[in-house]
Amino acid sequence: MVLQRMQALLERLYDAPVEHRIDDFLVTDRTQLERLVGPEAQQAIDEQVFVVQEEDGVRVGVFIDPAVLERLQCSDPLHSLEEDNLRDYCTALEGVSHFHYLMWSLSRSRAVSLLELELQAEVDKYASAVALLTRQREGRFPDGLHARLFHAVSFLPALDEPARRRYEEANRHAARYCRSLEQRFLRARRMRPELWVAELRRFFRCGHQEKIRQLAV
């Protein structure tokens, strides 16, 4: 149920419900993943969203390593997000984000680029963690979260060059955007979380080119 609750968190945050539930598309067995996507399954570490073309349409699925899910069930981040479950939370939330944004976009016949998916996931991880931690800490802002999510990161050495550039670009753009939101709405003398949420929702609904154009300013 933890993935469904993460999906519900994103739906509320962005006021963007989708018809499909992530648990209905979840794959946790690597052998099954390999049958579905072929050799690409070997590149999956803890999380992967896949779209497979079939005769009657496309199959969408989300792979999350069962060990990650088991740890999240034992240490529920939606009840208490801490350093010991933050990494697993981000791993699972990335898969949930990809699924949610892909389904929301497909229901509107919107094309989605890989960079757009990664960029939105980076923003989703940060924004959802801010929302959780602020609520769990009785309104106190999580000061070290931005550095923890955007600077204390590393990328898999096995990534090919295009994938590495895509991840690095998404991280860089999202870091700048989320820092801007902090400064404008969450660190001012008078916090304005309602404007923070409104801006997140506006950005979520922007297309790929519009997002990149805004972040390049």
How many structurally independent domains?
1
- Physical arrangement of strands within the biggest beta sheet: 1-3-2
Q: Can you summarize the main beta sheet? A: 3 strands, mixed
Distance from N terminus to C terminus (CA atoms, Å) equals 40 Å
- Report the C-alpha radius of gyration, rounded: 17 Å
Class based on secondary structure composition and strand pairing: mainly alpha
Mean pLDDT comes to: 89
Shape estimate: globular
Number of helices: 9
Portion in strands: 5-15%
Specify the helix fraction band. Answer: 55-70%
Number of E strands: 3
Low-confidence stretches: none
What is the helix/strand order? HEHEEHHHHHHH
Can you give me a brief rundown of this structure?
By secondary structure, the protein is mainly α.
Could you please describe the fold and organization of this structure?
With 217 residues, this protein is mainly alpha-helical. It has one domain. Helices cover 59% and strands 8% of the residues. It has nine helices and three strands. It has helices at residues 2-14, 30-37, 66-74, 83-106, 114-136, 145-150, 161-186, 193-204, 208-215, and strands spanning 26-27, 47-54, 57-64. A three-stranded mixed beta sheet has the order 1-3-2. Helix 3 crosses helix 4 and helix 5 runs parallel beside helix 7 (161-186). The longest helix has 26 residues, at 161-186. 27% of the residues are buried.
SSE layout:
Elements: H1 2-14, E1 26-27, H2 30-37, E2 47-54, E3 57-64, H3 66-74, H4 83-106, H5 114-136, H6 145-150, H7 161-186, H8 193-204, H9 208-215
Parallel strand pairs: 1-3
Antiparallel strand pairs: 2-3
